[in-house]
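Team,

Forwarding the record for the chain on the shared tracking sheet. I've put the sequence and predicted structure together so nobody has to dig through attachments.
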Amino acid sequence: MEVIIVQDAAAGGETVAQGIAALLRRTPAALLGVATGSTPLPVYQALASLVRAGGVDMSAARIAQLDEYVGLPQGHPESYRSVVLREVVEPLGLDPASFMGPDGSAEDVRAACEAYDAALAAAGGVDLQLLGIGTDGHIGFNEPCSSLASRTRIKTLTEQTRADNARFFGGDIEQVPRHVITQGIGTILEARHLVLLATGENKADAVARAVEGPVASVVPASALQLHPHATVVVDEAAASKLKLADYFRATYAAKPAWQGL
């Protein structure tokens, strides 16, 4: 993996945004896989600033959703479709028609999962997939012990993940759905470039296990070690348990521009 250690969350967002902008300058119609939650917000904010300043043209870009809650009504403010429209599509001035996502309200959820995998393939595959990491090492909603070859499917959330996400539902864990559709780890690994962003001391243990530990289904994010083009961007707090932190800092200092894209 390419590991980039930055000072704070804002610097992480700017670093990833600049990388995405470089991709879009080369491939204007790139398919970008987006993540939700608080961690990627600085990325979208930095991209919006670049768009407003004329630093990047995103008019032809396409967006693919990583996961979705099952059972929330259409238009629910915390459905991930609503979140992506609100936090990514609208601020970046993207065409809503360019936005792909799984149908969490489908009657046949299994068929919806298969249809989304097929749609991603038909679109030419994801050029860059932005990922976060859970405190237990999950990516997307692939909880610990998910198959590293898994495809888009329905998953049951652990109580830890529901507790982590309760802040988006007024702090009430009972309002957090128990099931989700998520791209599987095998699906995620098909993206041409994986970019994992992690900030905060509470992610330090998960980051260390994903980057420096063995590849194991108990830490789903460790599957990124198998990918030929994976970049991990972490702030100092999230990097605090990396044994090779000094090496990563020195490597990035010798190559200050993010050239991995």
